[in-house]
Amino acid sequence: MTADRLVAIVLRCYIALVLAVVFAPIVVSVIYSFDANRYPTIPWGGFSTKWYDAAFADPDVARGFRNTVWVALSTSLIATLIGAATAYADYRYRFRGKDAYLALALLPPTIPVVILGLAMLVFLARVGLSGELYTVVICHVVYCIPFAMALVRLRLAQMDPDLEAAAWNLGAGEWRALREVILPFALPSIFAALFLTMAVSFDEYAMAWFVSGFNETLPVRILALLQREVSPKVNAIGSIVFVISMALVVLAQVAVALRRPAARS
Fold this sequence. Notes:
The protein is mostly helical. 75% of the residues lie in helices and 0% in strands. The longest helix has 34 residues, at 59-92. It starts with a helix and ends in an 8-residue tail after the last helix.
């Protein structure tokens, strides 16, 4: 066995070990969400969906789910719009202070969410916007814009810079070139940004916990349930959140893999 082959095997084993450590608790949680027993035990108490029934019947959980969906949809639309516009400004223009502009635009995900949430709470309370559901949207938009911007920037970096200039030379104005050249090329990354930012918003709880007040999102409701009791309902709710989040991430990956023509014929 060659050294390169041995290194490849070791790396694959290491990746498999990391994935096992990350996903093992999630798999166990999903398994016990279908356990008939009140408490996780070995052997398994039998298959049952009663904890899912109990979760869906809980009005606080249902309200938290509706709030989370509304926040995630609003966040994804606004963050993707702003992120795509920011990415296009980076692609299209050269100006003084651009490095500082990019550094500030990509800064929020580098800040711990607890610190960011506390800062948002202090600022929004001073301007009278704390404790509402749209407050959570504001916080999540600030946090998610860099993800959308990064995806669209990555896609635009693959585009021939002469295509837009060629459209101008053929008589297209700036807006028409943007509509018929830039947008079709960037569309896969825009869809990917929509799905990814929706997934990030759907899972985020620290900032939502600080600023949501009585308008709890689903992750905040899960935290409240864990603080009050150890209920198998939490496993059921967590499994639903995991499936939805993974589905959104997979859709984002599929969108990134798409290839669209750079312009209309």
